[in-house]
Amino acid sequence: MTDLTIRAYEPRDYERARELFGSVDELHRERVPWMFKAPDREPRPVEYLETQVIANDGALLVAVEGGGEVVGAVVILMRSAPDFPIFVQQRWGVIDSLVVAPTHRRNKVATRLLHAAEAWIKARGASWLELNVYDVNVEARAFYAAVGYLPFIHRIRKSLG
Length: 161
Fold this sequence. Notes:
By secondary structure, the chain is of the alpha+beta class.
């Protein structure tokens, strides 16, 4: 897909971005129902995006098709090492969410969003980038492996209920 622009989120993108992130939420509810539920209110109100992400050293980048439709989005957060003697003092980026409309998957939209996020993070002096992906999201795991992301930590869990 050549007629695609990656740019910073603008308020006019909110409704479409909300829809896209809602599709990821639905996927999580379907595949991990013991952890995720249908929300009783909007989980990402515009205030959240503007005050908790963008104004708090983060970003929301969108992929916009030539006709102006938002077809993908990525939420980026910045983190710093804890002030504890064993940690190297450094900053890194976190991909909090990445989503592409089903109609635009397998067209390099996710790859372009990810590369734009990497550039955004690197420009802020980050040493590395991390993201979380649930084991049940086989498609996302395959995508991230294909673009060079490697497992770093294994989080294991035991139900006590």
